[in-house]
Amino acid sequence: MAEERYPFKDIEQKWQRYWQEQNLFSTPEQREKPKYYVLEQFPYPSGKLHMGHVRVYCIGDAIARYMRMRGYNVLHPMGFDAFGLPAENAAIKHGVHPGEWTKRCIEQMKHQQNALGLSYDWEREVITCEPKYYRWNQWLFLKFYERGLAYRKKAPINWCPSCQTVLANEQVISGKCWRCESPVELKSLEQWFLKITAYAEELINELDSLPEWPEHIKTMQRNWIGRSQGTLVNFRIKDSDELLPIFTTRPDTLYGVTFMVFAPEHPMVMELVKGSEYETPVKEFAAKVVIQDKFYRTAEDREKEGMFTGRYAINPLNGEEIPIYVANFVLMEYGTGCIMAVPAHDQRDFEFARKYNIPIKVVIQPPGEQLSPDTMTEAYVEPGVMVNSAQFSGMDSELAQKAITDYLVEQGWGKPTVQYKLRDWLISRQRYWGTPIPMVYCEECGIQPVPETELPVLLPENVRFGGTGNPIETAQEFINTACPNCGGRARRETDTMDTFFDSSWYYLRYCDSRNEDAIFSPDDVHYWMPVDRYVGGVEHAILHLLYSRFFVKAMRDIGLLKFDEPFTRLLAQGMVTKDGKKMSKSFGNVVEPNDIIDKYGADTARLFILFASPAEKELEWSDQGVEGCYRFLNRVWRFVRNNLPAIQKGFELREVEECAPTSHPEDKRLFRLIHHTIKRVTSDMEERFHFNTAIAASMEMLNGLSTYTVRDDKHSQRLIFEAVRTLLLMISPFAPHIAEELWHQIGYSTPILLESWPEYDESALQVEEMLIVVQVNGKVRSRITVDADLPEDEIKQTALNDEKVKKFIQNKPIRKIIYVPKKLLNIVV
Questions:
Q1: At residue 411, what are phi and psi to the nearest 5 degrees?
Q2: Which of 272, 442, 497, 690 is most buried, judging by how many CB atoms fall within 10 Å of its CB?
């Protein structure tokens, strides 16, 4: 007869319907309880979950279910980061409106999320492309504008002259437009920025106030903000009164400057070459470089490429003329976007100078040595003695740094300063599918904010998606408006906001998502915030987390918030891989979540995702591992079903019969196993949410349970019920469907989700021990200490494993083992 298998399809659908009908995941108004806000990063609605999504959601859901059972008032919401370029591209490709495409994708993803049994409070759902959400994007923008945190200036963009449209970096392939393959140009355009640099110092300093963030994430943020102490020096452009400020951390090398380098995207570049023979080649070079990945551009092993602009700067210290280049290794994000280059004392500058035959000038000599520019094979970057540096020659180079800076201040040529790599946040996007920026342009009054009473400024529906230009510019009824100040003719802003704006504060809206009169209730936000546990991928370690931190600080200063940081604890889950590579269609190693759910069930998928690896580590997909988790759930199912009559009798006895061990050895062991497992699983969950070891402990408990012989007496029935009850409670955060089904089968009528987490009894963990004398052929050879209730077979095996006993037995065959209970064991060989 075939063994009964866990009928997961029927059971999972049954309990998902029940949870939904009973509205069990709705956040209760229980403010007397301690709160716990657990949040997974909301997804872009691509229409399809991948295993990375599944891992994030299973981690968050296990935490939410566990914390509910621990007595917390839990907020566990979900929504969709629904604006973005893919929907607009779909509109162009398939002729469907981005809103309709996005709606379909959201429906598909919600269906998949619900199929996993995720305990989301969907009543608090946030969808960022809905006017009831982006209205508050616009309101926040206006508040930032009032405080000078939102402003407009020129910035470079990728421009396709054929399509007459702005291109995102990812839409530029080998310097050409992704649609028409025309060469992409670099243009300057008036665009909107947020002044995140106003918070640079606080953003970097307050990373120290986040002890429960992974250190590598904080390091990534520190590096991105990039605080540097140095000197600002004003060079002058030859044949011009214009100053060229540069930032350096090495003022001791100023006399060794032999060229200057601009970032290709610097707005001064095209002004320098305008009308000259260098204009076209520099423009083409800049267009090629600015679309490249910034980390790739600045990598040490990346070939240094540049181009002379035909212009010169004047070094204020010695009056020398210095050629000005543009190069791929300089970024706008560093200093002023223009650097002084000292090839004798900077390796990157050295390589560039050798490639382009630029002079090298030594200004620091190693103690006791004499460097020659002609024979140098690499830059000398260590401290030394100043040379070729006017009155500073002969000084220790480290002391000269302050002396030269003081001299620059005295002459009015520079000053000490702190600089950041962080740049203000460009939020303008020349796209349709985003939040309209609530500003208008009046010929008489200039730039005017839209009054708050007129929000939201709705995206126009009647637009054309032809793939050329910004679709909003085809909606004349949207563009043409009245000036809110003078009532005259005005033109609406046609740029929309970067979608990072939407995701920088969504976690606040969840606290009060249905509020139509305010962005949120202060009482609700100050009860729930900050988020207690934020779960998401390391790919969002910099921009999303940094922007969210900036928003909280800016909103605090506006008076909307009373705290400084949005996320108390951060769990950055590892990547899901297969065959040693990231899951990708190009590698042919994608495992579809739906396939796993259809074949093994949602509980198996959840259990494997949580068991296969610690949450913060990379997870290597294993079909054998999935099979192993499926077998475990079937073993749980069969054990409960096979012992159901005794377990149900134990359920009936629970009110009148205390669960305590009898003198029976098996009862003692099982009672101890119950409390030992509770302690292990609780510890694993309480500290760092070590799901893998918590699940392993539950698996070991089932192994122990399986060796227990259920007797036909009330003590045994009461104990087996308690053991099964405990096992189901402890696996319910990981495998909620099977836990819920068996919970009801053993006798309960209320949901397992609403139960309290089991407590362990420390006294139950105490073990009585006994000393056994071990003889070999009648002679005492050792003594072993074992648990008093250890079965005879295990006592014998313990004796045989004893090193002293092994020495006398060696490889001789064992004829018999005589055991005198609790006293002596004689091995006859």
A1: -85, -5
A2: 497
